[in-house]
């Protein structure tokens, strides 16, 4: 007899809030792992494809319906003891988004990754895998701008890279790289003084998806 194993989706949704990289999590109120932080997730429906399940969980469980979240499949977790109740296979998705408001679900909240040292199930492992994927994506794709508002300055984009990568970057070198990379940034024709000092050019995310050359961390 073929065993029936439940399949769930778990979401690692990351954003930058108050100069910190944060994940959308909830504190469990029931066993197993009561009072521990957990990722938003849910079991897939029999008639549902995985991307549709991830989008549904994002809207219904995470409370982010209509939010501008870039969602992509991260990896699959299927080792036997990951859930003490039963054998469960989880397909994790990574979501990247600009500074989002609080979730419409009262039980969900944004927490700095630096404070999520212990989590329910294997969710810390999944979260750290999502963090490494996000860091890598910033190297060779234009998704760094997914953490920014529609119009942003180079300094604001640099702060995103610094927060996600966890290290300071040389401002002049960063400015040269991002403005010279074809299709990465598109000038909006407007300026702002919200960074302080002289007016700074505002940019939008350009059409490029891959960066040539990549923005290497080292």
Distance between the termini: 52 Å
- Rough shape? elongated
Rg from C-alpha positions? Answer: 19 Å
Strand content: 25-35%
pLDDT under 50 segments (min length 5)?
Answer: none
The run of helices and strands is: EEEHEEEHHHEE
What does this structure look like?
- By secondary structure, this protein is of the alpha+beta class.
- It is elongated, with a radius of gyration of 19 Å.
- The strands form two sheets. Strands 1, 2, 3, 4, 5 and 6 form a six-stranded mixed beta sheet that branches. The protein has a two-stranded antiparallel sheet with strand order 7-8.
- It is built from four helices and eight strands, in the order E-E-E-H-E-E-E-H-H-H-E-E.
- Helix content is 24%, strand content 28%.
Sum this structure up briefly:
The protein has 218 residues and is of the alpha+beta class. It has 4 helices and 8 strands; from the N terminus they run E-E-E-H-E-E-E-H-H-H-E-E.
Primary descriptors:
alpha+beta, six-stranded mixed beta sheet, 218 residues, two-stranded antiparallel ribbon, 8 strands
């Amino acid at each position: 007899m073929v065993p029936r194993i439940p399949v769930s989706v778990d979401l690692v949704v990351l954003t930058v809030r108050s100069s910190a990289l944060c994940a959308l999590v909830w504190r469990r109120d029931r066993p197993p792992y009561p009072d521990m932080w957990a990722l938003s997730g849910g079991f897939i429906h029999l008639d549902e494809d995985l991307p549709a399940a991830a989008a549904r969980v994002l809207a219904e469980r995470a409370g982010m319906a209509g939010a501008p979240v870039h969602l992509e499949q991260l990896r699959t977790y299927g080792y036997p003891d990951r859930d003490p109740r039963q054998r469960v296979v989880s397909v994790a998705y990574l979501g990247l988004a600009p500074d989002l408001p609080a979730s419409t679900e009262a039980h969900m909240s944004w927490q700095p990754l630096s404070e999520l040292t212990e989590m329910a199930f294997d969710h810390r492992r999944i979260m750290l895998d999502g963090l490494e994927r996000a860091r890598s994506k910033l190297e060779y794709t234009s998704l760094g701008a997914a953490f920014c508002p529609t119009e942003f300055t180079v300094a604001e984009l640099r702060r995103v890279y610094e927060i996600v990568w966890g290290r300071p970057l040389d401002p002049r070198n960063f400015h040269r790289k991002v403005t010279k990379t074809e299709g990465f940034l598109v000038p909006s024709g407007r300026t702002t003084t919200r960074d302080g000092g002289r007016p700074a050019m505002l940019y939008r995310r350009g059409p490029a998806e891959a960066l040539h050359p990549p923005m290497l961390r080292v």
